[in-house]
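Whether sequence alone determines local backbone shape is best considered at the level of individual chains. Part of our work consisted of pairing the sequence of a single chain with a tokenised description of its backbone. This step matters because it turns folding into a mapping between discrete strings. For completeness, the protein is quoted in full, as a sequence line and a line of structure tokens:

_____
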Amino acid sequence: MNLFKEIQLAQKQLAAVIVPTPLLENLSLSKQYNAVVLLKREDHQADYSFKIRGVYNKINSLSITEKERGIVCASDGNHAQGVAYCCELLKIMGKIYLPKNTSKQKLEQIQKFGKEYIKIVLTGDYFEEAYSIALGDASIHRKAFIHPFDDLKVIAGQATAGLEILEEYQNPIDYVFVPLEGDGLAAGISSAFKMLSPNTKIIGVTTQENPSLEITNESDLSFDNKNSNLNTASIKKQDDLTSNICTETLTDVIKIPEGKICSTILKLANNKDTNIEHEGVLSIAALDFYADKIKGKNVVCIINGGLKSTEKEAEIKERSLLYDGLVHYFMIQSPQRNEVLKDFISDILGPDDEITHFQFVQKDSYETQSVFIRLETKAPNNIEAIKTKMQAKEFQFQNLNDRNGLFSSNSNLENILGEEKQDKIQFILRSN
């Protein structure tokens, strides 16, 4: 396998289709990290994602007979949009398998790209199920399966983004941060830099909750995405080609907490020119974890776009506030009296603290009751003063933020309170 040769061929194939995306210095980030921070704006692609590079290179390489039969793919992210766009562009029929929980917004966008040249099939609750059924369809009907990443042509096409970076920026590049959305991009870019700029450190970035399993050599290779409604930027299964390449070429892999990613999204939200979704900000979110190493360096962040889900905006905000320590959920055991809320506000809260939700959950005895509250603070350290005051007033409480896995699913009051009721308020039982 001569991957670099394939990358060069892919660049020629894509020349008439792909307009090189901008490589722009972000002055705000450069100042913040005392470095030259350049953003490779793959969100400027026709489908808002680098995926079109690999998809087009793969589909265009098919034989005339394969193109006439049509193609099949499975996706739960930007891959489907890239396939739909290329099917319409090349006038090839495609069948796209998606999990049943794919948002209406994403479905509409995929159909808009593919028009009459695609058929969307919703099947399975998770990607793995849709993936398995799609493979079966392709095999039975002898259709080409367009893999999201684990394919030489796909990897080579996505790698052309790396060639563009090296052609446009003439100074030495010290670091490149690449989102691990399937690893095809990371495998391709790291291979291109290994040949043309071997001193550049390539950092793969994934989420802490859904790590890139095969690259980081976790012992459990079974991927489970059931608890995340935000992230799709993770490896779904072990695939030899991409994992072998990345193992040899990546310098490091960083796992970013989802709350940090959500905070990054919100900080970029005021920039109307930045159409970045959840996995698109991974490379920027990673800079904090490399802040000391990148000082005085030339740094490139690969920015992916795709379709931002308006359905998840409230959850993104909540996860950000939780990560930044500005929102806290408490279950409190208090005396049974009408003035408990009034007393809590006057005796416990500071001038910058606010109760945004207060709900009586159950009576524990004739004397005590359980109360569920959501607190917002202006500064993370305010919560310690609140805890100290509750202890002084002899409130029995549990800060639910400390519970592992509590916020692994949708972060909203209904779900959080529902989990508490299912647990039968165990902390109260333990205290009695």
Notes: Residues 212 and 218 are 9 Å apart (CA to CA). The chain has a mean pLDDT of 82. Residues 152-168 form the longest helix (17 residues). The longest strand covers residues 353-363.
